[in-house]
Predict the structure.
Amino acid sequence: MIAAPSPRVVETIETMARAARRASRQIVRSSAQQRRAALQAMADAIDEHAADILVANALDLSAADEHGVTGVMRNRLELDRAGIEKLAAAVREIADQPDPLGRIEDEHVRPNGLRVGRMRIPLGVIAMIYESRPNVTSDAAALCVKAGNAIILRGGSEAIHSNRAIAEALRAGLETTALPVDAVQLVSTADRAAIDVLLEQEDSIDLVIPRGGEGLIRAVTAKSRIPVLQHYKGVCHVFVDETALLERAVEIVHNAKVHRPGVCNALETLLVHGSAAPRVLPSIAARLSDAGVELRGCPETVALLPSLPVAPATEADWHAEYLDLILAIRIVPDLEAALDHIATYGSSHTEAIVTEDAGQAEAFVAAVQSSTVLVNASTRFADGGELGLGAEIGISTSKLHAFGPMGANELTTRKFVVFGEGQIR
């Protein structure tokens, strides 16, 4: 149980929230050129503070080693000189993207002569609560500034020194520009009670984006007085249809599961059309097994693959986000059964179909209600960078107000703008 926040923590967070609101009112009046210049200055500052960031990251890595953190979790923390250069490059890439603000969309003229359109505007103040990855500090800050928002960042204690150093660099860059330095703030305390206070600042903060494990996201959603963009987990599916090309199916499934098994767009359940299973599943399963993937299958799958170590799947396996080299496999009689399985067990993240039948592909795309749906491509493409957004601030599996990978454009909303010539009602 988290202790009640101290008066000092409450005062600190409330002061930050008010400062962020003031900054948001200033940044909303900035020009595209000013925001672009600010982002370039932030990127330059990351380069200039590289030595400080490396020293800070070494402290986090030392603490991780003391606590026995290994493998993927430690890799997410680690920054080297090339990694810092990537941080700066990502900010510059965001700076060079088209400006998302101010354009008039869906313009039309009403019968009374009113010209009606909708203009892209910032959301206001974003609170970002995240775990592990120091790159989120610079990516999220850059995306929010690009979209004219202020941001309050609260990273995990495991990366606290790295996050502080990166945020200090970003703020140093902002100090040289026309934008307010408080457009980017970091909650520097490791006190977890600070999160609870942050989630109570509904008068100053417009949106909370949690990024991390399912436990973090559910805790934030349960406690927040502020709207939360949710992404609980990624139970992603690939359906291999009866017309699928063997080699294509093998490559797509292997890439979706093995390329980076610990990320949210990795494949977790493979569905195979019953007519195709004898033709394609032995080759798919052998390739996965050779790559070290533990297979768990329905009774038909176990019977079809007697020479491979396939454990019987349980009900829990269809719900599982393994984030590891484990895959559940189910043979289904047809497309409708595959769609029913996805609707029952999916998490609205990412689903793919492998097929040579355009009609089946069209039906799959229309029926699946996940945030990213792919035809003949790996689920690993459900990523902001791969989809042309540049860096992403996260992936939303809730449909309000954004759905799927979120870039700068998804950190805006729209207002109506009406031009008249004296009309009255």
Notes: Residues 7-27 form the longest helix (21 residues). The chain has 15 helices and 16 strands. The domain at 236-381 is CATH 3.40.309.10 (Aldehyde Dehydrogenase; Chain A, domain 2).
